[in-house]
Amino acid sequence: MSDLRCDEWPVGVPKDTRTCPEGSSQWGLRTLTKQYSVRRNTSELKKYERRRVTVTGTVSPSNDGYMDRFDVQSIGPSEMAEARIRDLIEELRRNPWAGPENIANPTLWIFHFTSPMVQILLAGPAAQDILLKYLDDPQIRDQIIILLGGVGNEKAVDPIIHAMANREEARDSAYAKKVNLAANLALTNITVGDVIWHHGGGITVDKCPDDPKSCWSAWWIKNRGTFDVTNTVSRNYSNYPGYGIYQDPRRFRSWFR
């Protein structure tokens, strides 16, 4: 995974050596328990960006103790089977989710993801179309939305907005408020849209406290014709840095936080 690729720095733009020091790699490989800095031909890595893969190669310990280097020898797809994803979605019903918790300002979110939620995030893009079929399920709608925020692309934006609660529903229902919080986090992560909070997280100032569904609808009407998640230069968003297909290789977060 990588939104910022040092070896594809725009021609004519001075390279930021703090973000992309010489010889560095902004490509990352994430396993269930560890993250690696990856070396391989960029065109080859690009084929598998944000996908679940099987790889072989050699690992070299890092000099700073932060992230080991992985030199890839072979790489190929390893998609999770649809039946397995559906089984994991059913497990969501038996594993209640406490919801996201903001513990600091500037924003620092703890997601409290359950084990089946983590496994679905590990499925990557293969989970998106299946998750979208469960958005109308009121029992797990909040979980489906937050998971789409970790694995979804532009295809998920409109359905998430449609699944949000309107002003009246959110006023009268604690669960509807939870659904909208999940949607605000998910949509900000996918779109990097400056709709509810600053796209990088920052100080929590809700720009649309009364009716976030309408605010996201207006943003999407304006941007849907040109938005492409693969053209996002830098996510730089503090709310999902260690989860799903948008993980930042420069930031290591435990899956089970």
Question: Could you characterize the architecture of this molecule?
Answer:
The chain has 257 residues and is an alpha+beta fold. The protein folds into 2 domains: 6-77, no CATH class; 82-246, no CATH class. Helix content is 34%, strand content 11%. The chain contains 9 helices and 6 strands; from the N terminus they run ββαββαββααααααα. It has helices at 42-46, 82-92, 115-123, 128-132, 141-151, 154-163, 167-172, 174-191, 212-223, and strands at residues 28-30, 35-39, 53-60, 69-77, 101-102, 109-110. Strands 1-2-4-3 form a 4-stranded mixed beta sheet, with no helix packed on it. It has a two-stranded antiparallel sheet with strand order 5-6. α3 runs parallel beside α5 (141-151). It is globular and about 55 Å long. The two termini are 20 Å apart.
Could you say which structural class the secondary elements and strand pairing correspond to? alpha+beta
The residue fraction in helices comes out at 25-40%
What is the H-and-E element order?
A: EEHEEHEEHHHHHHH
Main beta-sheet annotation: 4 strands, mixed
Biggest sheet: strand arrangement: 1-2-4-3
Described by the principal axes of the CA atoms, the overall outline is globular
Low-confidence stretches: 252-257
Note the gap between the termini. Answer: 20 Å
Tell me the Rg in angstroms: 18 Å
What percentage of amino acids are in beta strands? 5-15%
How many helices in DSSP terms? Answer: 9
| Integer average pLDDT | 85
The number of strands is: 6
